[in-house]
Design brief:
6-stranded antiparallel sheet, 14% helix, two-stranded antiparallel ribbon
Length: 169
Amino acid sequence: EYVKKQYSFLHHSELGINHEVKELPYYTAIGFPSSKNKFNRFKNKLDSKPFIFNTMPAKSKTYAELNCKPFLNLIVHYDKKNVIDYENNLKITGPDPFGISGGGLWHVPVQFVEKGNKVNKKLVAILSEWPMENRKFWICTRIDIFTEVVRKKYKLDIEISKIIKLDTE
């Protein structure tokens, strides 16, 4: 109950199960790289600042180059030398994304939203790797993997993935 007072939980309708990748800049990565976290020992408090990066998926040939499978992964561009700081509207060098694993990759199509209304967004993947082979990309794990495990384990009534089939025996 305490956690519910502090945080809003994701509704299953915001999960991007069976998401068809669009090679357009409709994706936003949100996470907490370790370089954005500071521990204040005097206040005994961890100050953590999210890193928000708008991006787009990589071309299909990148999956083979990084030994990934499109039904398991979603690869997006991350050029840390070309990050936009939207507060100041400046191009900056972004952080090394160490510690950002577990953050979300959201599909957020262009839309007009009146103030106070919700943005139509879907969590399509979880940030997982910044590959040594090519530091211009992030490898993400599709949300379908997680939802299928949870759906089968707890017999939940959520959308079934058509992208991945899991054997649970």
